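INFO batch 0412 | record 1 of 1 | parsing
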Amino acid sequence: MKKIILIVLLLYGGHTAAQIQTDSARVYYRVGKAELDPSFHGNGVTMERFLDRLREITADGRYRRFNFRITSYASLEGPLSLNQHLYEARTREFLDYIRRHGVRLPGEVNVWQDNCYDWEELEQRVLRSDIPFRAEVLDVIRHTPEWSYGNGGERKEYRKQRLMVLRGGVPFRYMKRHFFPEMRCSAVLLTCEFEEPEPPRPLPPSVLHDTVYIVKRDTVYLPAPRKPFYMAVKTNLLYDAALVPNIGVEFYLKNNWSLSAGWMYGWWKKDRIHWYWRAYGGDITVRKWLGKAAREKPLTGHHLGIYGQVLTYDFETGGRGYMGGEPGGSLFDRASFGGGVEYGYSLPVTRRLNLDFTLGIGYLGGKYYKYTPADGCYVWQETKQRHYFGPSKLEVSLVWLIGHGNINKGKGGKK
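INFO prediction complete | emitting tokens
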């Protein structure tokens, strides 16, 4: 959705202690745009009513002095240079829209601007909402300096960057959906008086094009915030119990997607008793994380995935044996190949540990041999081709969370 410009118009009339007239209107801008589009969100009807009211006020001979004040804002998406351009352009566009419709602006036009972001309005919206991690968001807005400066003196948007990376970007995405559309706005105040008041001290007209920026908060030199990094190292406890050592890694990409890879290698044998327990291979999985837990903390909660796997094996426990692939060949000569879809849930256990439960269903195929031990030798009996459909992946994995910000809140350690 492309969104909003808020205009609040307060119209005052009468003597110092006489009647006061008020009026208000709201029109909307598309995101990233400065054009006031009459066809968008009822803007045409709203502005027609406001222009009629403005013509009525300016034509009324009772009003002897007017003051027209404008303050514009942009939302937090996009680079600072673009947002500065947008809020200045929206102020000019609003004034030009009035002039294009033949209405003369009364009196002087003053631009009141010290920032392209309305932090006070954002704080109030956070207070009234159910945004995830609200206390942490408010702490950043209230106590984080707006600017930081690098070694070369370049200015960086410190508070905005902190909000963007907070909790993996979950609160920022909420604000983008629910708050930012109504923060692309211009606030306009028209004051009308009967008698000549004390001459105002307006800003010069050049402010419309050469905006003066006044930073309200003290500037503090701070390093740029560290970006969060989410990675996991894991082992499948079921394979470990079957004496097949294994290890896996998983990397969080973005937008609740991750990439996982695992490898197992167990190579045990006892020729004396004809006992073989051999398996090795690996898999690669692409996962999409779902649900409230995943939105609040990456690599946590429900996940769906697509996986591919390759493995070979040699199992014999004193009788008939089964060997996957060509005897003596490489992994790809001996391998069975498969793939499928999986579902799982990753449960927080401690500050840096999860338990991940996963079941995969798919296809597993490849050549395998049957053999039996006889007189100290292994006698081939037959060769078969496997075509298996069904459960082909089962994990109960212990997951170690690695990376800056990759912790489970409320599971021990620092809060």
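INFO post-check: The first strand starts at residue 5 and ends at 7.
INFO record closed
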